[in-house]
Amino acid sequence: MSKWLLSLSIVGLAGAMGVTWVKPMVARTEEAARSQAATLSRVTRELSTLQQELASSREALAKVDVDRSQQSLLEQQLTDLSSKLSGTQAQLQQQTLELANVEQRQTTWMGKTLGERFADMNRNIESRWNDVSQTLNATARIAATNKDSFDHLRLSVDKAENNTRDINQMWRDLMGPTVQISDDSTVGSGVLLRSVELDPGNFRTHLLTAWHVVRDIIQDPADHSELVQVYVYDTEGNRRREWASLVGYDANLDSALLVMESNSPFENGAKLPGRQQLDGLAVFSTIYAVGCPLGNDPIPTFGEIADTHHEVEGNRYWMINAPTYIGNSGGGIFASSSHELLGIFSKIYTHGNLRPTVIPHMGLVTPLSSVYDWLEATGNGHVIPE
Fold first, then answer.
1. Domain 275-383: what homologous superfamily?
2. pTM, 2 dp
3. For 136-170, b where at least 16 C-beta lie within 10 A, e where not — what string?
4. What's phi and psi for 305, nearest 5 deg?
5. Tens of pLDDT, residues 154-175
């Protein structure tokens, strides 16, 4: 091996043997460990190569006849190479020691410290779970202790309520006066008033409904000979078809008055209140809404008056929260206690333009006091009770 080749090998070895310091950050311990392991492997390989080169150099020194100056230079180079090898071995030992320290710190942080944190977390969770468990157990004991009392109270309330409610009378007052008004294109509701005997065997019965229900059925409102189909219901749930003619209407009020002539009175007619009773109504007054939604037989829903001064296009309505739907239009709104007719259902709120969504608990009602004013103004005040 020439001296230049040997020199380049020594310089290359010195340049390649850097010291890799362990990064102090715990988050990079694994990367440091991998780097140290790679360095250790590389240095080991270089040490083996140098040892081989040293042996070759010694053989070359013995075989090659050189002068004293060249031999001295070569021996000096060999001495320097041996010194570098000793330094490399020292660095290798230091790297091994630091790698062991890194592994020990990693084991301590990941094992002991993290384990203690998990142990504290588990103790906190267990303590909270015990508190919740004790609360639930106490609640269960209270519920079990009072279950019989609750059941007895519920049965007592149900019994008292049933005793104060005459279901048959409620049907006659609320469901009986409700009729369905329909044809092939539309369906709505109406409210029968009490039949009046004109002479023996001749009865007249008026009914109130929403104007837009009738408007969608008749061709000419001025032609009073055009008849509107009306279905009347009995207590057995049977219905029969009758025919009514238009007496008058008010488009702004969305109210219409129809009349039927018959040989016998209709069994059920709505009870009409006086103006004084109507003036006493307010928000939270409880009501029943009865109609024929979607063409069904009369259906009652319960709720309250939510607003008594709701304006739409300059007209005053009530708002109710009793669930209603399409087909309730023209149906009655009744007082929950007296069962008197309080108003005629007119509109239902919708949300959206492209695909409007019906809001069942936001219905608008034409108050009966407004209907009374209209009837008196059109010469039909005789249907209003004195």
1. Trypsin-like serine proteases (2.40.10.10)
2. 0.59
3. eeeeeeeeeeeeeeeeeeeeeeeeeeeeeeeeeeb
4. -75, 120
5. 555 455 555 567 999 999 999 9
